[in-house]
Each structure stands twice: as structure tokens, then as C-alpha cells.
Amino acid sequence: MCAWCAEDSNYCPLMNLELVFTPSGRIAVVESTEQPGGLPDSALDTVPNGRLDRVAKAFASSQPEGLFALATEKLEAPLAPSFAYWRDLAGRYLPELCHAPQNAGAEIGQIPPPESPEQDAMLLSVPPMQGAEYLTHVAIETLWKDLDAWVRGEISSSGQGLTDFLKRRGPLWHQVG
Predict the structure, then answer these.
(1) What is the residue-wise DSSP string for the chain?
(2) Which of 34, 145, 166, 168 is most exposed, with minimal Cβ within 10 Å?
(3) What is the distance, to the nearest Å, from the Cα of residue 111 to the centroid of all Cα atoms in its chain?
(4) Are 65 and 143 in contact (CB under 8 A)?
């Protein structure tokens, strides 16, 4: 039985998704090349939306939105190593965001990327995944800065401040800080 779909099936395409890191420095959601049970791709149309599906759709919208969704979505089932790795990276950002001082109104200052030793640990903990060889300090800093810019832009455009943004977009995190 699939924990995501609540389907009594040996095939769940949502559990067959992976995150890859491209040579251009982007995170992409792809289907695993091996289809369990040899079922056709059309089986994708029969699966109800779930939490991981929402994360995949967020990545389709933008990389920072996907990272934010991955870190804020309550995912109870075991994740593929690539999803767990990127959730941990984005999850390092959220406590920093929650402790950030708010300037006037909805403005929040930049959250600096992790220091080099922490980035070293992130690079050493990369699981076997497609594109792992392209991960560098620069790539991690770029991903972090993109996530930070997206979050600060969303908070600013909402005009409601960090607390209300987190209540709306990351309810698991709204009381941290």
C-alpha cells in the first residue's frame, strides 16, 4: 500500500520520483528510469494528488518554491535519498529565517548562506543521485541565495510579514523563532 496515494498497489509513480541536480545548477524532478511492475506511463493519470505531488508541482513552478515546499510539507513516509538531501538543505534555511529580525513591515534582511565548514558537511553528505558531481560550494550558495530571495520576495509582496507568511505557506514553521 502506498503511503502517499492510499492506493493498494505495487506501483505508485509519486514514490518513483527523484530529484536530480543538472550541470546548469538546477534541481529537477524526474521519474525514475525504472518503472516498477512494467506499468505504462499512463498509470500516472490514475494516481490522486498527494503531498509529494504538491512538492513536484512547486518545483515545476520554480526551484526556490520547490525547495520551500519540500522543507515545509509534512512528509511522513520515507523519502528517496535525493528528496531527503534537498529537504535537509532547505530545512537548514528555515530556522535561520524564523530567527531573522524583521525590519519595518514585511521586510526581512538577507539570510547568509552557511559557512564553509557547514557547506563541506553538506557536500560530504550528498547521497548517490544524478548530478551529485556538479554540487559545489558555489552551487550551494546559489541555491541558498535563490531560496532566500524567493522567500523575501513572497513575504514582501504579501505585505503581511514573516509570521503571516509562515502561517499561510509553512504552517509547521510559523511558531518557530
Answers:
(1) --TTT---SS--GGGGEEEEE-TTS-EEEEE-SSPGGG--GGGGGGSPP-HHHHHHHHHHH-HHHHHHHHHHS---SPPPHHHHHHHHHHHHHHHHHHTSPB-STT-B---PPPPHHHHHHHHHT--S-TTGGG--HHHHHHHHHHHHHHHHHHHHHHTSHHHHHHHHH-TTTTT--
(2) 34
(3) 17
(4) no
Cα–Cα distance measured from residue 130 to residue 19, given in angstroms and rounded to the nearest whole number: 8
130: phi > 0 → left, psi -120 to 50 → alpha, else beta; which?
Answer: beta
Q: Which three cell numbers stand for residue 127?
A: 547521497
- For the ranges 32-41, 55-64, 99-108, the lowest mean pLDDT is seen at 32-41
Residue pair 28/129 in contact by the 8 Å Cβ criterion? no
In whole angstroms, what is the distance from residue 139 CA to residue 162 CA?
26
Cβ proximity of 71 and 84 under 8 Å: no
User: How many angstroms from the chain centroid is the CA of residue 113?
Assistant: 16
Query: What is the amino acid identity at position 3?
Result: A
Whole-number Å distance between alpha carbons of 124 and 45: 38
**For the residues 100-123, what does the mean pLDDT come to?**
84
Q: pTM of the prediction?
A: 0.78
d(CA 2, CA 55): 17
What nine digits make up the cell of 4? 502517499
